[in-house]
């Protein structure tokens, strides 16, 4: 089973994924890590900084998105297929950066593979408190808006503190998932 987590920048997708793996044993992964590794290799940028330094990543975000979109233009399933190959033996995979319907469509087309889609939602105010600065050239891009209005198995509201997220949303998320996961076996 794959759990695909989506949401806007600074909504808390990574935090939700990190907290969720504390409750449900699974392998956490990201489509973007593959894109960042390839992008950094081609542009000679520092992959460690790209993965760990938010300011560094933000400085290169437009170029990184252009690189990934170029790959997807040639093969829409490029990153999801590569990640699937890496994680083929994992019974539960938690992806923190689901951004395109084709990712879920591809995984759903795989025999005997269940897909559970989660949307993390946070207000603009909450996102700003976490460091988000509105930038229409990024925020209105397809990688940020492609799943707006989509259908999800679960929505996690992340406007409060980490403690609130842990106490209410993650426990609800884990219970909802475990109930569905058990009935799907």
Structural account:
With 185 residues, this protein is α/β, with parallel strands linked by helices. It has a single domain (2-184), classed as Rossmann fold (3-Layer(aba) Sandwich). It is 57% helix and 12% strand. It has ten helices and five strands; from the N terminus they run βαβααααβαβαααβα. It has a five-stranded parallel β-sheet with strand order 2-3-1-4-5. The termini are close together.
Radius of gyration: 16 Å
For the record, the CATH class is Alpha Beta
Average pLDDT over all residues: 88
Distance between the termini: 10 Å
Strand order of the largest sheet: 2-3-1-4-5
Biggest beta-sheet profile: 5 strands, parallel
Strand residue percentage: 5-15%
Count of individual helical segments: 10
Helix content: 55-70%
In short:
The chain is α/β, with parallel strands linked by helices.
Helix-strand blueprint:
Blueprint: E1 2-7, H1 13-23, E2 27-29, H2 31-43, H3 47-52, H4 54-74, H5 78-86, E3 93-95, H6 101-109, E4 115-121, H7 124-129, H8 136-139, H9 142-145, E5 154-157, H10 162-184
Helix pairs in contact: 1-10, 2-5
Task: Please name the defining characteristics of this protein.
alpha/beta, Rossmann fold, 5-stranded parallel sheet, 10 helices, 12% strand
């Amino acid at each position: 089973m794959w759990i695909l987590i989506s949401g806007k920048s600074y909504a808390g997708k990574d935090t939700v994924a990190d907290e969720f793996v504390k409750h449900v044993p699974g392998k956490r992964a990201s489509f973007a890590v593959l894109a960042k590794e390839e992008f950094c290799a081609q542009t000679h940028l520092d992959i460690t900084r790209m993965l760990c330094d938010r300011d560094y990543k933000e400085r290169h975000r437009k170029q990184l998105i252009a690189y990934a979109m170029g790959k997807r233009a040639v093969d829409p399933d490029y990153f999801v297929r590569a990640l699937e190959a890496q994680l083929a033996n994992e019974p539960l995979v938690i992806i923190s950066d689901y951004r395109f319907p084709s990712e879920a469509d591809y995984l759903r087309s795989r025999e005997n593979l269940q897909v559970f889609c989660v949307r993390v939602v946070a207000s603009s105010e909450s996102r700003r408190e976490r460091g988000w600065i509105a930038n229409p050239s990024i925020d209105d891009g397809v990688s940020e808006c492609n799943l707006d209005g989509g259908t999800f198995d679960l929505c996690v509201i992340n406007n409060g503190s980490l403690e609130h997220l842990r106490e209410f949303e993650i426990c609800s998320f884990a219970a909802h998932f475990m109930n569905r996961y058990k009935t799907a076996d």
